[in-house]
Amino acid sequence: NAGVTQTPKFQVLKTGQSMTLQCAQDMNHNSMYWYRQDPGMGLRLIYYSASEGTTDKGEVPNGYNVSRLNKREFSLRLESAAPSQTSVYFCASTPLGAATDEKLFFGSGTQLSVL
Amino acid sequence: QQQVKQSPQSLIVQKGGISIINCAYENTAFDYFPWYQQFPGKGPALLIAIRPDVSEKKEGRFTISFNKSAKQFSLHIMDSQPGDSATYFCAATYAGGTSYGKLTFGQGTILTVHP
């Protein structure tokens, strides 16, 4: 199994450009998440989808939009990229949203630079 | 605001030594505390986790100590090995409903184990 697959792995944008980060999981997980990782700040939740058909804001949603395309895919869109969005973006999934000893399965990340 | 504070930012340990990373949280509603390990170029992966109804959890060389009254928890790595060199993140979340994957992460600790 591939697990959580993110594309692209690297991307350079100019300020104002738009792009979509793609994420797909093949583990039949219900919940999916987008985090960003910045030095000295750990990972911060951008958006999440508890189940197919639902999306909700996380801690830092401004400047982003998401789409839960189907159970497998959850995309993150930057409509007008800003230098402050330079970061490493991680997609993650969990089997359930319920209270169990479940773990987040992370993709390998997309390194985004906005010039 | 940073609801989970992690220290130190970096740690250098000799092979065979003990690595200790500390975290403190503010929100008393948090009831699930995982630690994630991240190698360069990879996404974080769950290492070990604890619930506040126990004060300690051990898995192999890794132990979490939890102090509910002080709102602190720590990771101890016994007999540290060069292969343990990675970035470690503590995190906290609510174990109920669809909230599991909405982790609040600490800032991260870069651990280097010298041979």
Tell me about this structure:
The complex is a heterodimer of chains A (115) and B (115). Chain A is mainly β. Chain A is 0% helix and 50% strand. Chain A is built from no helices and eleven strands. In chain A, the strands form two sheets. In chain A, strands 2, 4, 5, 6, 9, 10 and 11 form a seven-stranded mixed β-sheet that branches. A four-stranded antiparallel β-sheet of chain A has the order 1-3-8-7, with no helix packed on it. In chain A, strand 5 (42-49) and strand 6 form a beta hairpin. Chain A is globular. Chain A starts with a strand and ends with a strand. With 115 residues, chain B is mainly β. Chain B has no helices and eleven strands. Chains A and B meet through strand 5 and strand 9 of A and strand 5 and strand 10 of B.
Tell me roughly what share of residues is in helical segments of chain B.
under 10%
| Mean of residue pLDDT values of chain A | 92
Overall body shape of chain B = globular
The shape of chain A, in one word, is globular
Task: Report the structural category of chain A.
Answer: mainly beta
Outline the biggest β-sheet of chain A: 7 strands, mixed
Tell me the quaternary state: heterodimer
Layout of secondary structure:
The complex is a heterodimer of chains A (115) and B (115).
Chain A lengths: L3 E4 L2 E4 L5 E7 L5 E8 L3 E8 L6 E2 L6 E5 L5 E5 L8 E8 L10 E2 L3 E5 L1
Parallel strand pairs in A: 2-11
Antiparallel strand pairs in A: 1-3, 3-8, 4-5, 4-9, 5-6, 7-8, 9-10, 9-11
Chain B lengths: L3 E4 L2 E5 L4 E7 L7 E6 L6 E6 L5 E4 L2 E6 L4 E6 L8 E7 L11 E2 L3 E6 L1
